[in-house]
Amino acid sequence: MIFFEQIISGLVVGSIYSLLGLGFTMIFACTKRINFCHGELMALGGFVGLVFIEIFPSCLFLSFVVGPLTIGLIAVIIERLFLRRLQEDKPLKIVIATIGLSVVLSVVMQIIWGAHPKTYPNFISEKPFSFIGVKIIPQNLFIFLISISLMIILQYFFLYTKTGRALRALSQDRYAARLMGIKVGQNISLVYFISGILAGIAGMLITPIYFVSSSIGSFLGLKAFIAAVIGGLGSVPGTIAGGFFLGIVESLSSGFISSKYKSGISLLFLVLVLLFSPKGLLSIFHKVNLLKWRKSKNEKY
Amino acid sequence: MKSIKHVFPFFILILTLSIIGFIPNLYYLHLFNLILIYSIFSLGLNILTGYTGITSFGHAGFFALGAYATAILSTRYGVPPILSIFFASFLTAIAGFIIGLPVIRISGIYLAMVTLGSAEFIRLLALNWDSLTGGAIGISNIPALSILGCYFKSESSLFFFLYAMLIISTFIFVRITNSRFGKSLIAIKDDEQAAESIGIPCAKNKLISFFISGFYSGLSGALYAHFDRFIHPATFTFSLSVLVLCMVILGGMGTVFGSILGAIVIVILLEYLQPLGVYRLFVYGMILTIMISYFPQGLIGILKEVSGHFRKNKFKNTI
In order of start, what are the domains of chain A with their CATH numbers? Predict the structure, then answer.
């Protein structure tokens, strides 16, 4: 039974990883760039959620809407101020800029909310119930369900709405998309907005279990990035699968090997996947990829 | 002769520094020593980031490897420090070569992630391999530098040693970057496919630049270990990698003088912002972001622009 409990806790952690990893994946798919302050945005989401829950103590739902929207706006501001001018430049410049921003954001959070981890009461009761002999904590079930439903909504958005179709066009060829009348700059801002919202929701979800602090952002952000790369950066189903895979591997390895090298093992996985299948594990099933990673215009020749 | 002309401002700077070095103020000497060590470190990153165009987020790992290698060799096995420093830098160079091996298959952000991961792995090893590295306590009582029985125990004697090391390593660095090989690295940075098409072995040259970068970083790490005489894993975190990246980008990527200027500015900033504690990182992050998005040429670029502004025959450059 311990084995199943490990797997369930892995699934919960994995759902957070894949929710966060989706932010990386969306930005990568649409702009071929990586936004490294995504993890910090998530931590900021936790803190902002804390503030809003204190403001509206009776209406949990409202803070769940307003908090992530704020993070989305912050992401858009960051994109407009610093990243827009680097969009056409070499990919690594945005990475360096966002790494600088992530350092700045974590210090800002430390200044405002202090160094100690904070939390708020659980949304649902903590009492575990047992399901076919396996103990399940309702809070974890809640996190799992919310992230799964968000992923489904996101997938629907990308596949069946007009804006989603525009974003997919953008991800395939930016110049052709511009010729078809898609406003590139606006849509890139939109992508940052959505990824900010996802980060905000993930931050609010993890606060009751992990406790939010200024240092958790870079830690979880890196894990989510690894998950996205393992599954296949730029593909939505790949990222989701990668997140669950990494969560289960981590919780099994900390349960059965040693928790000291927990983050070392995930980094090892990253290196292995990059070496042997750089487009992710799911690239083996090419047909599954819906946001398919295409070669950009310059690389065709 | 072009190479001498290139380093000329640098030699003047070092000369003034060494004159100031005579001032018997231990605090300033300590700062200068730190600047010298970090200059070598940022030169090491510069050959990778500024010349070859590979960004590494894991140079703290190389630094740690150099420091730990020399510390273990000189404390446990009694190897004379001057030998152990070179052994440590050579070991780090080999480690850089091995970490750089994925360059054959991957590039860009993925490669940066591999360097980040390997640095984290080295830090975890240092933290958890208690019997070899002393775990979280670290290694203390590292012997001071000595050559043939004469010890560099005081800050001022160490200053001259480090200063000689920096001059030698800068000279070699300039020789490397002005050589055919150095030019091929710049070609790889500008356009890899074009470089490949004119017959430059890209993967091989990238690997060699990883090797050189590892050597320089390991050297600076080893020097740091003998300078501070106490090392522990908390020194070699991700923020050290950010710090050295900050030096390279602030000074100006792809310039020798730039990385030394970056080291000077950042170390002095580091010292004067000491009362801010952890919040200093805010300044580094801001520097990194604003420099890369608004002044990608760095301080050297700004200086060049300003000096071009005051030049008499302004139009000479435009024609």
Answer: 2-296 (1.10.3470)
Whether B119 has its CB under 8 Å from any CB of chain A: the answer is: no
> Is the CB of residue A39 less than 8 Å from the CB of residue A20?
yes
> Percentage of chain B with pLDDT > 90?
15
Distance from C-alpha of A259 to C-alpha of A255, rounded to nearest angstrom: 7
pLDDT digits (tens, 9 = 90+) for B23-64: 666 777 788 888 889 999 999 999 988 888 888 888 899 999
- Chain A CB contacts of B234 below 8 Å: none
Angle at A107 between CA A101 and CA A110, to 5 degrees: 145
Q: Which residue matches tokens 């803070």?
A: A63
Contacts of A225 in chain B (CB under 8 A): 113
Size of interface A-B (CB pairs under 8 A): 115
| Three-state secondary-structure class, residue A132 | coil
> Which residue does chain B place closest to A82, by CA atoms?
B293
The helix or strand, by DSSP H or E, that contains position B146, with its residue range, turns out to be strand B145-147
- Distance between CA B91 and CA A274 in Å, rounded? 25
- Does any CB of chain B come closer than 8 Å to the CB of residue A57? no
pLDDT band at B93 (very low <50, low <70, confident <90, very high): very high
The mean pLDDT of B306-313, rounded to a whole number, is 66
Q: Decide: B253 and B172 in contact? Cβ < 8 Å.
A: no
Q: How far apart are CA B304 and CA A283, in angstroms?
A: 48
Domain count across chain B: 1
Alpha carbon separation from B131 to A90, A279, A297, B76, B92 (Å, rounded): 44, 39, 53, 11, 21
By residue range, what is the domain housing residue B27?
2-316
Q: Is B110 on the interface with A (CB under 8 A)?
A: yes
pLDDT tens track for A178-192 = 888 888 888 889 999
Distance from CA of B80 to the nearest CA of A (A): 34
Of all residues in chain B, the one with the smallest CA distance to A110 is: B279
The CATH number of residue B122's host domain is 1.10.3470
Does residue A146 contact residue A200 with C-beta atoms inside 8 Å? Answer: no
Residues shown for chain A: 301
User: From CA A137, how far away is CA A159, in angstroms rounded?
Assistant: 33
Q: Does A96 contact B238 at a Cβ distance shorter than 8 Å?
A: no
State the best of A81, A262, A267, A298 to mutate against chain B, taking most chain B CBs within 10 Å: A267
Taking residues B88-96, what's their average pLDDT? Answer: 92
User: Can you read off the two tokens belonging to residue B113?
Assistant: 């992630």
ipTM above 0.90, yes or no: no
Closest alpha carbon within chain A to B112: A92
Q: How far is CA A293 from CA A28, A32, A33, A152, B257, in A?
A: 9, 9, 13, 20, 41
What does the alpha-carbon distance between residue B313 and residue B269 come to, in Å, rounded to a whole number? 36
Neighbours of A135 (CB within 10 A): 12
Nearest to A261 among B110, B124, B286 (CB): B124
Residue type, position B273, single letter: L
Shortest Cα–Cα distance, B60 to chain A (Å): 15
Question: Rounded to whole angstroms, how far apart are CA atoms B34 and B98?
Answer: 28
